[in-house]
Recover the amino acids of this structure.
């Protein structure tokens, strides 16, 4: 009885022996061994589609360069080129099956790409998968290359592609905070330092600060993107360029720049570039900076929305789900909480990258797979975290205007706005009196004949309190010695 497509196999052989490979698989024996050896993460490299695309771009550029310099005939080069393009266009990604965490400095990933591209090309040529006498994964698809230049180059290109979507999402989140800043422009609130009442500001100013922070991170990430543009193609094993034609490096660089649209450049010292992974550490650090600052913003959102009755309760986060299996009506700030956890993971991934960079030895860092996985995961989780924060939280935030107004009205912090006119000593005495008696600061200032009602009203206007309107003129500082009395514990207050 003939075998069906799910059970038929083909035999492939490497230096260790032979294996049976599923007949319909585009990967081959090297990939099969890697799947057996590295059942670690249970996550195939295909989870990072931009890495798969970048691998195909490197193979496509190499095929074009090899054809150009005459080390690969036109028929084979064209087949590899067209097969790689199909992967760039999104086909066959499910065939990239090796685990993202692997030994061998990325060799298994490189061979997975070589085998898939080769077998796609063989199929396009009307030949059977595994017909490596006609087109070989190593002799042809991997011509002029080594894992040690292909893998880091593909990782850098993949990260550059992935970063674009992160930057797009980051800018959308920044704009969401800016929209809220405009919406909350005139809503006064009490500012806080060290969790203690400080001076008034507007809720719009607070949200504008969040937007500015994210805008700064957008700039830093954009700047650090250039760390990924230095590549070592042509270095082969350790940077000496063994097995390559002298014209290969400039040719493959030119083709890669055209294919990727990135301003790539060839490292001036290929030996150093092959062994050093410091650029990944710097790039990871910029992601951590963004994650930590985003987490701080989420901390603020949770504090500002705390309560709703016994907390600050200044803003309302959109209710997303029931918050308790035992307390009816409880709703938790689950969206900021999940973004906090993303930040913790990114910080941990950055530590992993740092240790992996340090662990490199002599002419190669064997730990680039965990570096790649850590950074790709950070970008992926941050992008998703920013999206859910924007769509499921920030866009729906509302202000508790009555509560905010009541807190500003009862705050002694407003007296700070009057210190240029009545002096610090009088302001301190009045603040203490207001705290002890619960009296309104404006009333106390007027009763003490330090300012008129009109003057107080002008200086305590929302625009002046929040700094939106600058103080352009000043009235002379009053002398409080005779008409301001420091309160005692009995509750005495300034008298007129």
């Amino acid at each position: 009885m003939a075998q069906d497509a799910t059970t038929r196999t083909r035999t492939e052989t490497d230096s260790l022996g032979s294996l049976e490979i599923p007949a319909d698989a585009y990967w081959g024996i090297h990939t099969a061994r890697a799947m057996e050896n590295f059942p670690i993460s249970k996550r195939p490299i295909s989870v990072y589609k931009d890495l798969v695309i970048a691998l195909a771009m490197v193979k496509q550029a190499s095929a074009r360069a090899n054809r150009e310099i005459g080390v690969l005939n036109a028929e084979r080069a064209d087949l590899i080129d067209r097969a790689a393009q199909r992967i760039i266009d999104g086909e066959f990604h499910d065939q990239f099956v090796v685990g993202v965490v692997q030994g061998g400095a990325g060799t298994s990933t490189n061979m997975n790409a070589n085998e898939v591209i080769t077998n796609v090309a063989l199929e396009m040529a009307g030949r059977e998968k595994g017909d490596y006498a006609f087109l070989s994964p190593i002799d042809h698809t991997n011509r002029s290359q080594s894992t040690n230049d292909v893998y880091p180059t593909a990782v850098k290109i993949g990260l550059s592609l992935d970063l674009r979507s992160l930057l797009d999402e980051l800018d959308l989140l920044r704009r969401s905070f800016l929209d809220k800043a405009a919406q909350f422009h005139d809503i006064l609130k009490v500012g806080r330092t060290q969790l203690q009442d400080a001076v008034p500001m507007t809720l719009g100013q607070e949200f504008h600060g969040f937007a500015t922070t994210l805008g700064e991170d957008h700039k830093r990430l954009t700047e650090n993107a250039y760390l990924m543009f230095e590549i070592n193609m042509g270095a082969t094993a350790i940077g000496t360029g063994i097995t390559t034609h002298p014209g290969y490096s400039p040719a493959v660089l030119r083709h890669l720049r055209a294919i990727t649209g990135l301003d790539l450049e060839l490292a001036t010292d290929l030996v150093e570039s092959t062994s050093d992974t410091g650029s990944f550490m710097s790039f990871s650090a910029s992601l951590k900076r963004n994650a930590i600052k985003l987490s701080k913003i989420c901390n603020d959102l949770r504090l500002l929305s705390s309560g709703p009755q016994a907390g600050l309760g200044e803003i309302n986060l959109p209710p997303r789900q029931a918050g308790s299996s035992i307390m009816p009506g409880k709703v938790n700030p689950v969206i900021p909480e999940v973004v906090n956890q993303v930040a913790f993971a990114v910080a941990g991934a950055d530590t992993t990258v740092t240790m992996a960079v340090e662990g490199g030895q002599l002419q190669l860092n064997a730990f680039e797979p965990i570096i790649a996985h850590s950074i790709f995961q950070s970008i992926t989780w941050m992008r998703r975290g920013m999206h859910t924060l924007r769509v499921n939280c920030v866009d729906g935030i509302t202000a508790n205007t009555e509560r905010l107004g009541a807190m500003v009205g009862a705050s002694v912090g407003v007296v700070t706005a009057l210190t240029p006119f009545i002096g610090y000593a009088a302001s301190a005495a009045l603040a203490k009196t207001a705290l002890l008696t619960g009296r309104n600061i404006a009333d106390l200032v007027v009763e003490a004949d330090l300012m008129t009602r009109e003057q107080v009203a002008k200086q305590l206007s929302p625009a002046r309190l929040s700094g939106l309107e600058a103080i352009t003129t000043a009235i002379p500082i009053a002398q409080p010695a005779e008409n301001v009395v420091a309160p005692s514990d009995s509750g005495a207050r300034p008298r007129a």
In short: The chain has three domains: 9-143, 155-230+272-400, 411-496. The mean pLDDT is 90. The first strand starts at residue 9 and ends at 14.
